[in-house]
Amino acid sequence: MRRVGGVSLKCLSAPPAAAVPHAAPPPPPLSEERLRELWNLLLEELKKTDPKLCDALTNRPIAYDDEDNFRILVPSSYNDSEIRPHLIRLLTFLREKAARPQLNCRIEVVREEKEDAIYRPLDKYDAMCRTNPNLELLRRILPEIDY
Prior knowledge:
This protein is of the alpha+beta class. The chain has helices at residues 32-49, 51-57, 77-83, 87-98, 121-131, 134-141; strands spanning 62-66, 69-74, 104-109. It has a three-stranded mixed beta sheet. The N and C termini lie far apart (120 Å).
C-alpha cells in the first residue's frame, strides 16, 4: 500500500505567512527645507570627492516642485552638459538620505532676459555718466575730446 505524505488539511484559501507581502511604511514627506539641507550635505560631500562638480553646483538655485520633484536652475546649456552626466549619482545620494526612492530632478536652463538696444554716442555717454558721475568732470577738464 502506498502512503501519501506531506499533505496538510490547513485552510487552502489563506496564503502562507511568509508569502504575505508586508507593506513598507511610506517614506517621510520631503519639505523644501529638508531638500535644501540635503542639497547642502551633498555639496559638502562633493567638496571631498569631486571638487569640479561641486564648483559647478555651488550657487546654483534649486526649485522645489513637490515632495518628489525638484529642479536645478542653470544659466546656460554648458552648465547643463557639465552636470547632466552626474545626475544619477546625485539623485542616488539624495534618494538614500531622504529615504524617497521616487525623488526625481530636472535640470532647467534659465536664460536672463536682456534688453537689446542700439545706442547713439550721446546715449552711451549718458549711460556711462550714470555709472560713473566723475565722467562729467573729465569732460569739463578735457573739452576738446568728442564724446
